[in-house]
Design brief:
With about 90 residues, the chain is mainly alpha-helical. It has a single domain (about 5-90), classed as Arc Repressor Mutant, subunit A. It is built from six helices and two strands. Helix 3 packs across helix 5 (about 60-75) and helix 5 (about 60-75) packs across helix 6.
């Protein structure tokens, strides 16, 4: 992730479910709390290894979480996952 994107997403936090009709409810995506934690770290620009160390899980577990996140958010990469999560209200800047 470029430094510019890392700086832009450095203050990303989990957001409450939106019910104002402007986007799909976050509950419809149904990310687990661990998946939200992993996604939050991705948004901060951390690598899989850094995320694993920070959360006390293996690199393989991080990859597994990311695979499920990509599928649930219909994303092809880390940046798309973060952007799609922001679009549906799972993350805010």
């Amino acid at each position: 992730m470029s430094t510019d994107l890392t700086l832009r997403f450095s203050n990303v936090t989990a957001a409450p479910t939106s019910t104002n009709g402007t986007h799909a409810p976050a509950a419809a995506i149904a990310l687990s709390s661990r998946e939200v934690n992993v996604l939050n770290q991705v948004a901060r620009g951390l690598s899989n290894k850094q995320i694993a160390l920070k959360l006390g899980i293996s690199d393989k577990t991080v990859r597994n979480h990311l695979s499920r996140i990509f599928r649930k958010l219909d994303a092809g990469n880390r940046t798309q996952a973060v952007m799609n999560a922001m679009r549906v209200g799972l993350l805010t800047v």
